Amino acid sequence: MSSTSFATMRLSPMMFLKRLFLILVFLGLCYCVQQIGLSVISVWHGSHQDHPQLQHNIIPFIDQVDISIESRRVADNAIQHVNQHDAKAGIPPEDEGKEQQRGHQQVQKEQKPKLVQQPQPQEQKRQPDADSGKPKVGNSSVNNKNKNPNQNKNPVQTVSKVKPYPVVLATTNSVFLDFTRNWLESIRRLKSRPKNITIVTEDEATYEALLEYPEVHRVKPAFMLPPNKTLVFDTPEYKAFVNKRPKYILDLLEHNHDVMFSDVDTVWLDDPFPYFTSDFDLFIQEDQPRPKLVLCAGFAYFRSSDSTKDFVRQWIRRLELNNHKKPDQMVLNIMLREKAIKRLKYNILDTKKFVSGRFYFDEEWRKNNTDVKPVFLHNNWIVGHDIKVERFKKLGYWYI
């Protein structure tokens, strides 16, 4: 093409505007596709942004609860001193308990919600037993003495290096507050008691009422129930309540805590932890053996293995895809029958040691099993708060 023809090629204003408009439309479409892709990835990975407040609430206490009382006091004083020094120097305080990056989680940049700080639990005497699987009381200042030469200069590192302990987790509301107290009293009567108990309080009244238990860490979820809200079994409200449990469990598993989840309409008659020592990812109570085997989501020990975490993530995704029309226990049983996570190893607990309400409250069953000393009783297979109370009272398991 000649130089003359190049000189004569000029875009009219109208043609220029049309081309500019097409370019802008193309860029807009690219942006929309990008956003849709990010949304799909977020849903696929099952992020836990539904309860951002809970993620902040459960973990900071748990991460620090396993050190001795003296180590905690020294660490807290050092942290306070550092914060005061930074404030004088005009340095903003560090973000408490920096959240760990997860493949399916985004780091929240919002200000961390404040909790009412519970009094620290009293130190309990535990006998170290390498084979029993029981929690062992550890002193971080001793355990990490040779690992961190700068330990005395920065006690914050001491707290972060403590090995996580198993956590006993429960959820409750004001309607079942009396059952919660009865459950806690049964645990108090044990010779060997669990060190870490965390209760998610689903309403404000329960959160305040449990202040009388200094050994319990109370947690407020992001969305709380109205006061004295009665949940009828198998209703949509009941399913929405119980279907939050897997997310609470996963929050702790992802911080490498084993989780012993327990319903509060139960009593503990002995320490269950020695029964969780074998090489399984999940230990779970049997609810009924036939005509179809049903396992109980209301009493299960989740080991913080990769298989368990994958199982609970898929458990949550299935509940969400089903729009929470099925209760968590039904979905859990379907997944175990289907072997949804093939490498997951699970163990069904001895039905004569971990007894469901279907059997134990049957007089004939008790007559045929007089030599059995249960570790755990579940007051299920009956509907109604007052009826459950009467069953416990009749057999002497109502302690309050």
Counting copies of identical and different chains, the oligomeric state is single chain
Number of strand elements:
10
Largest sheet, spatial ordering of strands: 3-2-1-4-7-6-8
For the residues shown, what is the average pLDDT? 74
Largest sheet: number of strands, sense, barrel closure: 7 strands, mixed
Distance between the termini: 99 Å
Q: From the helix content, strand content and strand pairing, which structural class follows?
A: alpha/beta
Number of helices: 15
Strand-residue proportion: 5-15%
Q: Considering DSSP H and I runs of 4 or more, what fraction of the residues is helical?
A: 40-55%
Order of helices and strands: HHHHHHEHEHEHHEEEEHHEEHHEH
- CA-based gyration radius: 27 Å
Sequence stretches where pLDDT stays below 50 over 5 or more residues = 1-8, 45-57, 60-75, 91-162
Morphology? elongated
Structure description:
41% of the residues lie in helices and 12% in strands. Residues 1-8, 45-57, 60-75 and 91-162 have low confidence and may be disordered. It is built from 15 helices and 10 strands. Helix 11 (306-321) packs across helix 12 (328-338). It has 400 residues and is an alpha/beta fold. The protein is elongated, with a radius of gyration of 27 Å. Strands 3-2-1-4-7-6-8 form a 7-stranded mixed β-sheet. The chain has a 3-stranded mixed β-sheet with strand order 5-10-9.
